[in-house]
Structures are given as structure tokens and as C-alpha cells.
Amino acid sequence: MRARITILGGCGGWPEPGRACSGFVIEHEGYRLVLDLGYGTLPRLLGLLRSAVADGLDAVVITHEHADHMVDLHGLFRARWLGLTDPPTIALYAPESVLGKVVALEDPEAAEHVDAVFSWLPLPAGPYEVGPFTLESVALPHHVPTAGVRLTARGLTIAYTGDTGPDPALVELGHGADLYIVDATHPTPPPPAPGQPRLLLSAAEAGELAAIAGARRLLLSHFWPGTDRELAVTEARRSFAGEVYLADEGTMIELP
Question: For residue 23, which of 8, 211, 230, 250 is within the disulfide window of CB 3.0 to 4.6 Å?
């Protein structure tokens, strides 16, 4: 069976009109998980599932606590907690700080139910067996604790940087991936700031990274609002000869 990736959103920071922030649904061998749930992703996820309470979702993977990657996890919690009686838990793989953000949005009574909705496992950690996948993760540089994610099944590898700056670990993360999802906040790297580490990637760097890693396909994501996305593709293709996709809402990618 082919794997299918459905893009819920691809904006970074905040969503442009009609768009959403980072979120990707991966379906393989009857198993369905979502990578990140940024602003505006939950209605699209529920529409895909055809369920107001997210029936049919098996697992959630959140790379870090920034709202453009996880704020709709709170909405998912409310859908399950308020919409169902004694809901079965959904596996949640995320840094511990992500749970804290969900709890902080609720009153104390509701916060007590988070553990009844999500079965939490920490990132970066593992490896974990997640349905048909083995989930591996690695700590990456960002403003807050962040995990890069690698999902491997029989004959299939999908890797995801989440939100990060240049780091040697990114080559191993995406090594030989059938699809490498890479944050590409700007088309080209911004001018260096003296004494400040780089904590975001560009489309040009994403192309270089995918080429060095030997990835087969590249999915550019996390575009700053107003970014020229076609220019981002052009910059990525300067280094990467494989297929390049844009994280446009509703796009589906099938992998053999």
C-alpha cells in the first residue's frame, strides 16, 4: 500500500488568509498520524477525517512548543474531551513543554483531563514503534527544545525537520528519505547577525541539505507570510535534482 501525505498547512509564524501553519497527515497501512498542528490545521484535519471528534486519528507527533506548530493540539484535546464520553487515548509524541502549553490554556479542572485524552511519550527520545513506523528523533537547534523526526516503515522513510537552523544532524535525519519535509522560512538565508546563531532554514539550504542527504523528494514548508513560494522552489532546485513540492494546503503526495 502506498503512503499518502496530506498537507494541512505550510505557513510559519502565523497563517496567511486562507492558509494554515505547519501540519501534515501521514497515512500508511491503515494507520494515520499527524505531524504538528499549527494555527488553522484542526478544521482541515477534522474535515479529512470526516469526524468532529477526530475519530480515525491514531497518533500525534509535535516537534516543539511554538504555537505555529502545536496550538491546534489544544483544539484536538477539546474535541476529544468535550465531544466524547471516556474517549480512547491518542498517542502523543512531543517535548514535555508541549503538554504544558495545552494545560496552560485550560482551567485546572479541564487540565486534569489531558492525560485521559493523550498518552504522552517524550521527544527527542525513542526509538518508538508507532503503528507500521519506527519513529526516531533528534534534538535540533531552535529557540526552544525541538525534535527532528524520522519515520521508517518497510521500504519507506519520511523525515521532518520541524523548525530549526543549520546543523550537521540534519544530513543523517534525512539520509535516503523518500520524502524530506524541510522548513524553508525564506527563499535564501538572511544576512548573518553578529553573535546570533541561525535558528531557521531557507529554501536554498533545504535544497542543499536534501541533496547531501540523498533524499528522493523534498517538501518545502514553514513559509514566512508573504514569501514568494515559486522563488523558494527555484532556490531549492539550484542544488537538488529530485522532485520539489510546496506545502500548499490540501496537496496530497503519494509515495510508492
Answer: 8
| Per-residue confidence in pLDDT tens, the chain, 256 aa | 689 999 999 999 999 999 999 999 999 999 999 999 999 999 999 999 999 999 999 999 999 999 999 999 999 999 999 999 999 999 999 999 999 999 999 988 888 899 999 999 999 999 999 999 999 999 999 999 999 999 999 999 999 999 999 999 999 999 999 999 999 999 999 887 787 888 999 999 999 999 999 999 999 999 999 999 999 999 999 999 999 999 999 999 999 8
Domain residue limits at 225: 3-255
Assign residue 7 the CATH number of its domain. Answer: 3.60.15.10
Question: Can you tell me the distance from the alpha carbon of 139 to that of 47, in angstroms, rounded to the nearest whole number?
Answer: 32
The per-residue b/e assignment along 178-205, b for 16 or more CB within 10 angstroms, e otherwise, is bbbbbbbbbbebeeeeeeeebbbbbbbb
Nearest to 145 by CA among 198, 101, 97: 97
* Residue that has been written with the C-alpha cell 509515495 in this structure: 255
**How many domains does the structure of the chain reveal?**
1
Cell 496530497, located at residue: 252
pTM over 0.85: yes
Separation CA 49–CA 103 (nearest Å): 25
